[in-house]
Amino acid sequence: MTSPASTTAMPTAGAAFRLRLAPLRTRRGLMAIGIVAVAAVAVAGVVGRVMLSAPAAPKPPLPVMNVVTVPAQRIAMEETLRVNGSLTPWEDLTVGSEASGLAITEVKVDEGDWVKSGQLLAKLDDSLLQAQLKQTEAQIARARATLKLNEADVRRAQELLKTSAISVQAAEQRETTADAARADLALAEAQRAALLAQLAQTEIRAPADGLISQRTARLGRIVMSSDPLFREVRDGILELDAEIPDRLLDRCRPGQRVRITRADGGEVIGTVRLVAPLVDKASRNGIAHVRFPRDESLRTGMFVTGELILDDADTLAVPESAVLVKDGHPLVFVVRDGGKAALRPIAAGQHSGGKVAIQSGLAEGDHVVTQGAGFLHDGDLVTESGG
C-alpha cells in the first residue's frame, strides 16, 4: 500500500505526457508568430525599396520675382524737335535825338520800364531854343504889322491910280514893298517852325509801345545826334532764332508751337512766325523765327532750350522705364499668359512726357515690365502687379 506522500511526489504517466505536450505546443506557436513577423518585415522592406526607387512627382517652379507691368496703350503723343538759341527782340528800337550839343536835364524812365507810344523818356536843355523862339515870334509879329501897313498902302494906291493922283510906278513900288513884307513874314514863320522842330527834339519820346531794355541817358550828359539814349523792345516781344536741320524744314511751318520751360518750372508757349528761306552752307541748318509773348521771366540775350512740336497724333507708347538697351538695340520684357517673361526687340520712336513711341514690336494691350526688367532673363517665371 502506497503512502499519500509517495502518491503526491510521483505523477502518473498521463500527467507526465500532458506536461511534455504543453511546452511543445507553445514553442510551435512562437515559431509561427516569428515566421509571420519575418515575412512582414521582408514585405515591408520590399515595399520600401520599391517606394524609394520610384521617381518623385515634379513640383511646379516658383516665380523668380514680382514685377510691375503696364499695358501698351495708344495715347496722344507729340513729336518734337529739340531747339535752342538766344532770345532776341522782335524789333530792337534805338531811341535818340537829332539835337546836338544840348545837355540832358531830365530822365523819366529806367531799364525794365514798360512805356507807351509817345511817352516822354528824357528832356534836353531847351532854354536857348526857347529864347530864339521868342525872338522869332517877335519878328513874326513885326512882319505881320508891317505887311498890314503895306497892304493898306497898296489899296490906297489902287484908289489913287483910278484918278491919276498917283503914278503907276509909285503904285507898283507899294506892291513891291508889300511883297517884301510878305517874304519877311514867311521867313520868320519858317524860322519859328524850325525852332519848334528843334524844341520837339529836346523831348525824347517812345516811338512805340515796348520795354526799355537799355538806358545810356544820364543827367548832364551832352547829347550828340548820333548817340543812342535808350533801347526799346517793341511790344516786349522776344524771338528765338531756332536752327532746324534742312531735312526737317519741310515739316516746319508758321503757326507751330514751341514750348520752353522757365526757371520756376512753368512753361512759355511760342509760335513759329516765319521760316527763313535760306539754309546755311556750313551747318546745313535753316532758321525758324519763333515769337514768344511778353513774359517777365524772359530776357533779351537769354539762352533757352525748347521743343518744337512737329506733330501731335495718337501712337502706341510705353513708359521710358520699360525700355532696355542691349548692344545699341531697344528691348522690352513682355509678360505672357502663364506668367513667363519674354524678351522682345522693338523699334522705338519719339520720347515725350516720360513715354516712348513704339513703331514696331508690340501690340496694344501687351503687358510690359516697368519695374524689375533689368533683373530678368528670357523665359523667367514672374508674378505681376499693375503699375
3D architecture notes:
A hairpin with a 2-residue loop joins β19 and β20. With 387 residues, this protein is of the alpha+beta class. The chain folds into 5 domains: 4-44; 66-75 and 314-386, conserved putative lor/sdh protein from methanococcus maripaludis s2 fold, CATH 2.40.420; 81-89 and 237-312, Efflux pump adaptor protein, beta barrel domain (Elongation Factor Tu (Ef-tu), domain 3, Beta Barrel), CATH 2.40.30.170; 95-121 and 209-236, no CATH class; 126-201, Helix Hairpins (Orthogonal Bundle), CATH 1.10.287.470. The protein is rod-shaped, with a radius of gyration of 57 Å. The N and C termini lie far apart (118 Å). Residues 1-26 have low confidence and may be disordered. The protein has helices at 4-9, 13-53, 127-162, 168-201; strands at residues 65-71, 73-89, 92-96, 102-107, 114-115, 120-124, 203-205, 210-215, 222-223, 228-234, 238-245, 257-261, 267-279, 285-292, 303-319, 324-326, 329-335, 341-345, 347-352, 355-360, 367-371, 382-386.
Unreliable stretches covering 5 or more consecutive residues: 1-26
Q: Order of strands across the biggest sheet?
A: 2-11-14-13-12-15
Total domains, how many?
Answer: 5
Query: If helices are DSSP runs of H or I spanning 4 or more residues, what is the number of helices?
Result: 4
Shape: rod-shaped
Query: For this structure, what is the CATH homologous superfamily of the largest domain?
Result: Efflux pump adaptor protein, beta barrel domain
Mean pLDDT: 84
Distance between the termini: 118 Å
